[in-house]
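Inverse folding, one chain.
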């Protein structure tokens, strides 16, 4: 696919939360609310604004939930919030559950601040500041940054310098928008590893986390460089470096409309989210690796002794999440030799499953609000079984109610069809499998460390390579636009990917497909293979290649047209009797699930997009299924 990004676009990075700031002559509040609404697409669980009056009084209003709730709260205030300078934020919880208190802006005596990113050493900073007499009210990492800047401001009496001093102490990533009571009408902005743009027109200055929020005002902007503080006052923008000298920044322009900008220039959220997979895997795994490169679960129930005692595991989930469970089963059983059942949550809850007190039930869910998964979790708990949830949304019901939780870091998933959330669920299950195998004495630390490295470093790189096949997959997909039925076949780990390949294609392209273990076709279903029936053969497992080739011959001799998805090594070594091939880079067989997942998602996407389907909102489907 053509690179939809300009030179400065942040391709494939996950930025949650949204920032907006306004300084001008009008009341800033309506501008902030409107800006926040254009950032809603990023996903959020709370929102807030801070407005500074001309005499330096900062009023902060924040609310858990939708922007409408924030607006209601603002409307209900007796004394209306008004001021020509303000900052606003939509929060996607990372540290601390969604709540009014944890929402941004966060305040300190001299300032209010909004933040995107993660302050890794917030606990150390807090400890230091508590000794200096500060009190903390929220569970967030951001409050530490607000108070740290305040602390330095009091020392150096210069807002720009105070921000640099604080930045020297902070480890992590940030985009900050700050208002100081002593500088009414001014916004101070700074960033590291998180985007922040500043812009102006003849009437006002704007800061924003991304382009959609500025388009109403202007299409030209500065992508703030790291190590620079920008000061906006009305339409005047200045940039300062660490020495206090004025700096230059390059002005950029964009010709996207709001919708194009929200999709980062991609035609659909789904393809944008597939491109976010490398970063999502990296973030999910790296947050659970210790400095020694080994898994660090830091959850009491999952510490060595307890983890080692689980006799068998039940993975319970719905749809795509359940399919990630199939991949998890393959890797947990292989590495840790612990038996794993995978259950559809809607069946688990009613079939009176056999649960032993020494079992572990793992619930997988992107949203954490799926009714069947939640009911299955409650059923397991009522039976006295330890529950672990692997969830993408912080503070969601499944996360809260499980005995322990491992969060995935896919960021908000907007497209109804789940893609990056599936990849990170698989990644977390791999990490879990490595840890379990280690605890069970099946992997020594060096072996475990090497597998973690492959997961955290090699897999994002492998997925990036798989993304480079997007154009090839797009042109192959053209052959499938008029197809009515299709089969996905595979063996071993590949067969665990087939149900997801099939679901993805069905739900967004409306083409019927079936997933079959390649060796099982001949037990009945092969009667459906006739002249021209399309079959997609997933074959990344070299030890099973000869068997796969026999399976391909079987269907080809009945007239099937076969597309094989394989690796370079296998394609070179074997004469695959397929009509077409998609060739992945060489990948360790046990890890092939990651690039393969990307390719099957690309396949479904390109078929659906070229059939003109409403890819991001397929008919009859909702993003979160909160009813039974
Ligand atoms: C398919 C899809 C669904 C979800 C399922 C569970 O693309 O998205 O099958 O995977 O509804 O949703 P979560 O993971 O939110 O529990």
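Residues assigned per position:
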């Amino acid at each position: 696919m053509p690179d939809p990004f300009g030179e400065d676009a942040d391709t494939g990075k996950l930025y949650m939360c949204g920032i907006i700031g306004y300084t001008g002559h009008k009341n800033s509040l309506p501008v902030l609310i409107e800006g926040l609404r254009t950032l809603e697409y990023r996903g959020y669980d709370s929102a807030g604004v801070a407005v500074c009056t001309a005499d330096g009084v900062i009023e902060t209003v924040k609310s858990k939930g939708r922007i409408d709730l924030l607006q209601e709260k603002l409307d209900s205030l007796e004394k209306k919030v008004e001021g020509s300078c303000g900052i606003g934020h939509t929060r996607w919880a990372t540290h601390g559950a969604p709540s009014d208190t944890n929402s941004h802006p966060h305040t300190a005596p001299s300032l209010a601040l909004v933040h995107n990113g993660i302050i890794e050493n917030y606990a150390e900073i807090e400890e230091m500041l508590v000794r200096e007499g500060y009190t903390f009210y929220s569970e967030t990492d951001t409050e530490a940054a607000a108070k740290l800047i305040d602390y330095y401001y009091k020392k150096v009496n210069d807002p720009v310098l105070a921000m640099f001093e604080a930045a020297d102490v902070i480890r992590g990533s940030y985009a900050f928008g700050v208002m100081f009571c002593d500088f009414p009408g001014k916004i101070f902005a700074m960033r590291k590893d998180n985007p922040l743009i500043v812009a102006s027109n003849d009437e006002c200055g704007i800061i924003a986390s991304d382009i959609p929020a500025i388009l109403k005002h202007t299409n030209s902007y500065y992508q703030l460089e790291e190590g620079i503080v920008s000061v906006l006052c009305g339409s005047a923008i200045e940039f300062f470096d660490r020495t206090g000298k004025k700096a230059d920044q390059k002005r950029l322009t964009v010709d996207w409309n709001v919708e194009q900008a929200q999709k980062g220039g991609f035609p659909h959220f789904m393809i944008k989210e597939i491109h976010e997979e490398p970063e999502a895997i990296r973030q999910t795994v790296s947050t659970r690796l210790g400095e020694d490169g080994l898994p660090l679960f830091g959850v009491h129930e999952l510490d060595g002794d307890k983890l080692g005692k689980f006799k068998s595991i039940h993975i319970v989930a719905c749809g795509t999440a359940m399919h990630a469970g199939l991949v998890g089963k393959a890797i947990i059983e292989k590495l840790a030799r612990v038996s794993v059942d995978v259950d559809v949550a809607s069946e688990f809850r009613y079939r009176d499953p056999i649960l032993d007190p020494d079992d572990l039930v793992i619930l997988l869910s992107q949203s954490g609000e799926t009714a069947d998964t939640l009911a299955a979790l409650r059923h397991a708990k009522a039976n006295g079984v330890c529950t672990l949830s692997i969830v993408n949304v912080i503070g969601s019901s499944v996360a809260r109610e499980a005995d322990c939780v491992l969060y995935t870091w896919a960021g908000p998933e907007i497209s109804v069809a789940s893609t990056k959330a599936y990849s990170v669920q698989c990644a977390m299950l791999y990490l879990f499998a490595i840890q379990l195998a280690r605890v069970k004495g099946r992997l020594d630390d060096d072996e475990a460390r090497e597998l973690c490295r492959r997961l955290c470093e090699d897999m994002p790189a492998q997925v990036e390579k798989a993304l480079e096949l997007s154009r090839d997959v797009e042109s192959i997909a053209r052959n499938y636009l008029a197809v009515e039925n299709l089969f996905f076949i595979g063996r071993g780990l590949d067969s665990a990917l087939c149900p997801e390949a099939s679901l993805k294609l069905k739900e967004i392209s409306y083409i019927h497909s079936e997933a079959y273990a390649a060796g099982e076709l001949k037990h009945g279903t092969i009667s459906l293979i006739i002249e021209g029936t399309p079959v997609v053969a997933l074959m990344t497992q070299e030890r099973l290649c000869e068997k796969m080739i026999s399976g391909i011959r079987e269907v080809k001799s009945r007239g099937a047209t076969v597309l094989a998805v394989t690796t370079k090594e296998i394609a070179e070594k074997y004469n695959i009797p397929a009509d077409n091939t998609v060739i992945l880079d060489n990948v360790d067989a046990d890890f092939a699930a990651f690039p393969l997942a990307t390719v099957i998602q690309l396949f479904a996407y390109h078929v659906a997009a070229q059939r003109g389907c409403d890819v991001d909102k397929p008919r009859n489907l909702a993003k979160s299924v909160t009813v039974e």
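Residues 1-12 have pLDDT under 50 and may be disordered. Residues 128 and 208 are 31 Å apart (CA to CA).
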